[in-house]
Amino acid sequence: MKLERVELLHVALPLVTPFRTSFGTMTSKDTFLLRVVTDVTEGWSEFAADPQPLYCSEFVAGAEIVIRDFLLPRVAALPEPTTALVAPAMASVKGHELAKAALETALLDAELRAYGMSFATFLGSVHERVPAGVSVGIKNSVPELLDDVERYLAEGYVRIKLKIEPGWDIEPVRAVRERFGDALPLQVDANTAYTLADAEHLRGLDDFGLLLIEEPLEENNLHAHARLQKRLATPVCLDESIHSARDAASAIAMDACRVVNVKPARVGGYPGARRIHDVAAAHGVPVWCGGMLETGIGRAPNLALAALPGFTLPGDTSASGRYFAEDITEPFVLKDGHLPVPTAPGIGVDPLPDVLARFTTRTEVLYTKGK
Ligand code: OSB
Ligand code: MG
């Protein structure tokens, strides 16, 4: 497999409803897709972060530079850009896991398409469909939140995650429990909005039988999360703080988390995500697949990952319609609360050319062989 061309397509897809978290409000998914062309086939991926570095330190414009100026020259110098060689070739560039994940995933897609092998087979997935949870943003009022949760439950979602922040935590959780009962699988995500000084307040959440509280404290502060876990019955789950299997091993050893949210992009790609799954499984720690409001291009391989045996909790892998009126692939549709794991070669989906053209705002050629 020879690398011939790499294109970057900026896309902007309006969200069906604004998504508010403790770090900001998103009204559209603005990111880029990578299209790699080899002498055999092509491959696609989606950069997972946003135009602003508010969820994580990486952002769209920065990632474009990192891929073009630092990652691609290293990958293009390889005899073949196969997955086994690509990650080691990029390793001398510090950090930038989401940028690395985008390039690695597009190349892996091309490689697997050449073999006729799906992501699910490559990763070792064991399920044909995965249960779907939904992440519900911060709302202006509790009645508005209850209406949204009711609608998602009517659509079939099997687990609800509420975004929380100081001033929007105990009250919405209590209201959802009162309205929908104790049996509803329910969890919360603070996206780093609290400090250890809030431990007593967060202990108030222990009354509600939550599955977990996700990333309550600052990113990468495993020590503080371990101290908080000592004071909470609710399992702490880490998202932002886990960038590698080593991080997962440290966090589990310190009891800084009892659950891990695995986002392939945040950990540098799918092989890295698989390693976190393996480390967690070896410790009996459940994992689930997070999301970044991906289009179908990013969602498809996430569903394959979510079908690994250690993904024992429902993920944030929701249907296309939860995000977009129109997706750039054939839409993922919920059936009995589940989404199908793609079976076609590679990521298993392709952009719909006319829809992609309509949502593309700018295209850059990052690499052409021989130039
Ligand atoms: O913290 O899990 C998060 C979306 C964007 C950035 C960070 C997060 C989220 C979500 C939604 O919670 C996940 C999804 O539905 O894709
Ligand atoms: Mg999160």
From TrEMBL:
Keywords, in A-Z order: Lyase, Magnesium, Metal-binding
Mandelate racemase/muconate lactonizing enzyme C-terminal domain mapped to chain residues: 142-235
Enzyme Commission number, as recorded: 4.2.1.113
Protein name, as recorded: o-succinylbenzoate synthase
InterPro entries: Enolase-like_C_sf, Enolase-like_N, Enolase_C-like, Mandelate_racemase_C, Mandelate_racemase_N_dom, OSBS/NAAAR
Presence of the UniProt keyword Lipid biosynthesis in the record: no
Domain of life, source organism: Bacteria
Xref: PANTHER family: O-SUCCINYLBENZOATE SYNTHASE, O-SUCCINYLBENZOATE SYNTHASE-RELATED
Enzyme class: lyase
SMART domains (UniProt xref): MR_MLE
